[in-house]
Amino acid sequence: MASDVEDGVCFHCLQPIPHGVELSVAFQGDDKAVCCAGCQAVAETIIEHGLTAYYKHRDLDKPQQTPLLPEQLKELDVYDNPDVQSDFVRNTGDHSKQTTLTVNNITCGACAWLIERELAKTPGMIKSVVNVSNQRLHIEWDGSIIKLSDIIARLARIGYQALPFQQNQIEANINARRKGFIKRLGVAGLATMQVMMIAFALYFGVVSDLDPTTQQYLWVVSLVFATPVILYSGQPFYKSALKSIQAGSVNMDVPVSIALIGAYIASLYAVIIGRGEVYFESISMFTFFLLTGRFLELLAKEKALKFSTNRLTYMPNLAHREYDGGLEDIAAKQLKINDIIVIKPGETIPADGVLLSDKASVDESLLTGESRPVTKATGDGIVAGSVNQSATLRIKVTATAQQTVLAGIVAMQDAALADKPKVQKAIDHIAQYFVMTLLAIAAVTFLVWSWFDPDHALWVTLAVLVATCPCALSLAAPTSITGAVHRLNRMNVLVKGAQLLESVKHLDTVVFDKTGTLTYGQFKLIAREDYADIDMINAIVSGLEQRSEHPIAAALSQLSDQPTSPDAIQNYPGQGILAEIAGTDYRLGRCEFIQIWHPNWQPKRQSNVILANRQAVLAEFQVDDEVREDSHDVISALKLQGIRTIMLTGDSDARAQTLASQLDIDEVLSEQSPADKVDTIKSLQQQKHTVWMIGDGINDSPVLAQADLSMTFAHASDMAQTAADVVLLNDQLTRVLDVIETARKTRIIMRENFIWAAGYNLTILPIAALGLVAPWAAALGMSLSSLVVVANSLRLYRL
């Protein structure tokens, strides 16, 4: 009953309530404590709709086994409530939404194939990718066509229970799964020891001394011990196989289940009629070895699972919000945009926002890996997950929950873990046909042995079914990708998908933007020439540059304390700004942009920013930035690997050639517009080059999208980060080399996994079909084959 919920535990989800959270819902005249605003909203909706039977009939001892939507809730669109969704759904467009669901009963690659195939047929689904390693489903859908509750219900109809992924429940899920495995393993292990002792008595030396009555007695005792193994320990295999068959396909647990149930029924029949062969020791040992393999795989998966959520676990549960001149402590999930929050020294910032205080020093190591404090000024952006290392701060909230930068980083990480290389997609596609072929071979084996040696037909067939189960093959790519993502995350590198592994195979060209990539992008004014009133020039330049996102703009936007606001303004990416001020047209930008009005004008020095009106040039500025310390090392290392390096920049040819000579870059293409850059990449690709592009500016997003693979930095514009495939969080260019090395190493390990898994299956099949492998040995071999694949992939976890 609901009234039996313990103190300190959430009334709705039965999870511990974080310290300091004081939220509740009214239920049957009492205030019931809940752990967060999401649970509060769901519980209130359930109560308002008169569906309180859910709380009366759920199993309080097994909260994780309570169905997500009981019979009374199947028509309730509780997960479509915007307040509920704000905690786990990320909006990516007008109607496009993304989220990650936890699907606890995914067991193999065939499960992933089944789920993806079912959702692919669903109208409104944009993308669905299953990650077998951490049992998550990453989905993107059109909210105007289909609701999230419909997606969850569709999964339930094919036997998969999906829950919105919440980081505060992950430990409970992990512990529940581990405990379930340990219980089943315990039963199988104890029963196997007893049955093997009886089998020893039956088969090793004392058989001739046993009368039929004693033999029958020992068979019955074996049956008693083996039955719990079959009925309890083997349940995960039966459930998975049944779901697969109900959905009109076959997965890898189908032959396993047939082997277990077939051997048990044959042995039971022998016991009943008093003659024949029994296989109780084989099926008990078989089940024990299978469960051991699955359990060790589970432990390996959990390592990646815990790491992939560690960033979110540091987010605070409480926030200090201003109201009527005072402060109130509320759950961080209840924060809204434009709320004013106060952050005390040493506290973690719970939401993205804009700094209202004069200055701040924050530790952004959770996002970037860089432990040095970052100085912020009034108006600067502050990201959730940063730690305040200065005095008390006031921040205006701009994004909360799943819309924060940190949540976006975790979403990208989940997408990368879920994505699959082409070779794995092909294997998933043929997985069901492989199992069907295996069943056909097993049937032929049984018929042939029934003709030659009927007494051995059954156990030879069982060995074939078990030994050739392609579990290791299905784990070859997911475990490798998980290891690679884990490794890169520890280097503070985020990858969005498996195209990294595809493109690194033929990588031969790396193209660099100049500003902010090979240089720091921290510009300063080196020199200037003025041809009109300097105060007027400073006011105009400041007013225009404050409306530009180009890195150069920061060096000129503070020239005046009283910047002039333009009446109209138009940005030309890579060229400059055209504006109207008090009826006069002005151009501010590169030399060629100014020469449209003044074709014969030439700058006096290496000026890269010019101000002019239609009558005359008013000023020229030389703005430059510092070369990255690691740029030369990166270029040199790439050239040693035989990779061609190209600098693609909109800067002047003289400045570009100077930097290229300093860094020993192979080729320079200067004075390039965004369209020119895209054309250059296309031209290289048409020449059969595999091109990686590294850039960070807003005008780099088209060329980043065009490249075979693109990288950008954490400081880059939002458009650049959206277009890029890889984001370097700690701003170190040397991470480019780490990405290449990791991708190549991952391909090697993935290839080793495939060779081992395929080689094992092809080798063991004829041996098992010839009757040279006992069923228990087949189970041991299959489990060890899967563990070899997992252990090989774990090499990627070592830096």
UniProtKB/TrEMBL annotation:
Pfam families: ATPase-cat_bd, E1-E2_ATPase, HMA, Hydrolase. The chain crosses the membrane at residues 185-204, 216-233, 254-272, 278-296, 430-452, 458-481, 754-773. Residues 97-163 form the HMA domain. It is found in: Cell membrane. Keywords: ATP-binding, Cell membrane, Ion transport, Magnesium, Membrane, Metal-binding, Nucleotide-binding, Phosphoprotein, Translocase, Transmembrane, Transmembrane helix, Transport. It is a multi-pass membrane protein. The keyword Translocase applies. The keyword Lipid metabolism does not apply. InterPro entries: ATPase-cat-bd, ATPase_P-typ_cyto_dom_N, ATPase_P-typ_P_site, ATPase_P-typ_TM_dom_sf, ATPase_P-typ_transduc_dom_A_sf, ATPase_P-type_domA, HAD-like_sf, HAD_sf. Signal peptide: none annotated. Belongs to the cation transport ATPase (P-type) (TC 3.A.3) family. Type IB subfamily. This is Cation transport ATPase. It comes from Idiomarina baltica OS145.
